Amino acid sequence: MMRESKLGIKILMSMSSNSYWTRRQALSLFTGFAGSLALHACTQQPSGSLSNTSSTATEAVPATSGSTLWIGYTPLYIALEKGFFQAGGLNLDFRDFSSATDAMAAFGAGRLDSQALVTSEAVSLSAKGVDYRIIMAADNSLGGDGILARNSITTIADFRGKEVAVEVGGVSHFFLLQVLKEAGLSGDDVRLTNVTPDAAAAAYQAGRTEIAVTYSPFLQKADQAQQDGRIIYDTSKMPTAIVDVYLFSNQFIEANPNTVTGFIQGILQAREFMETDRDEALAIAGKRLQLTPQEVEEQLKGVRLIDLPTNLEMLGNPQSDIYLLTHMNDLSQFLVSQKQIPQAPDLTNTLEPRFLKEVQT
Prior knowledge:
The protein contains 16 helices and 11 strands. By secondary structure, it is α/β, with parallel strands linked by helices. β6 (163-166), α7 (171-182) and β7 form a beta-alpha-beta unit.
């Protein structure tokens, strides 16, 4: 999980030169997920569950999915807008969530068939016994997540005893723990104020906190607005820290395997669309993310999308130094050491590369 890890280095070398992004509202780790599971207000059963999957060969299978907003999911937003999933036999009802804890709670409770999230969230789901399969890696963060600090704070070591605005249990919290560990500190060495990523950026911008952990577009906007400070650390310095993936519940996969292949095809078609119809692609993403096309273009530089050959290696080659299961097992041990999950879950059956192989052929 450290930045010199071969996973991040190989991904950067293997992926296509195109980069895209904007950020979902973070990764809820185990503690936040457990409480939100009971509180989530959504009561609708997943439209793609076993009881609702009878369909003819000509009608698309309904399914529900959701996540917080993140520019690494730009191909997903394009595929939804352009009907690429429908063409693959999948009628995907996608929901934007304001917090990662709510999104994870909905999936964990069976109210979503699919989800886009980071690998640390996936490990947390496994720690709760949620049965899912990762069918595709989406992106990794290369500067889209970061830590803002006032100029009086010269190094990460200076965080000791300071207040840090961060979404506790979210992706920003997880990133902070890794950065602190690299500097010889732990979460116990700082005082955490639990706020959402947008609120953390706003508090920093307004001068109410010296340190804030957030992600784009909040990260850049707060940095530009607050003159007394800068981005002291971001994921360009730790490219293995945050990897986003697409997953489906195992129940849905067993009932509707062909539509999972259709999902992957839709994502890949959307990536092609970003090359051939760039202006429209930026406009679609901007509408979803409430950004101008120019802002989308700039923020896409903060992530790398993971292409099909690299996906096949990450999900299907245990001998590879970028094998995703190795990364997740290491991440699981880290989360245990940080007391974010009680024990390391068995992740043996987490990866499902067969749909990627079907698309390849």
